[in-house]
Structure formats: C-alpha cells, structure tokens
Design brief:
Strand content: 35-45%
Keywords: Signal
Number of strands: 4
Order of helices and strands: HEEEE
Protein name: Secreted protein
Length: 65
C-alpha cells in the first residue's frame, strides 16, 4: 500500500473512535411516579432519564454510554 492509503485508514479509525465515548452526567431533577421515581441527568449538552423502581434516591452522578 502507498503511504497515502495508510493515512486515510488511520484517519478513519480515529474518527470512528471519537464517537464511542462514555459520559458522566449529573442529576438535575427527579420526580415521583407510582412505582418509583424518574431521575433526570444532564451535562449541558446531553440529557438522559432513567426510571428507578422502588424506594431509594437517585444517584447524584451516572455514567451513560
């Protein structure tokens, strides 16, 4: 292979890995439901919510893939 082809392959590999990140989000809100509570997490760019069943509190930080 020519050196230019190696550069293209390396560039494609770097770009594809940049999308596989793990984000730690901070709890910004929660509200009760009949079976537990909904926990809402955000970092300003991304927002996620989970349903926590049963008693207990929402963790202050949570990792999302």
């Amino acid at each position: 292979m020519k050196p230019q082809r190696y550069l293209v392959l390396i560039g494609m590999f770097i770009v594809s890995n940049s999308h596989a990140t793990v984000n730690t989000l901070t709890l910004i809100d929660f509200y009760p439901t009949q079976g537990g509570k909904v926990c809402v997490y955000s970092d300003g760019h991304r927002t996620e919510s989970i349903v926590k069943k049963g008693a207990g509190s929402c963790p202050s930080k949570k990792r999302f893939d």
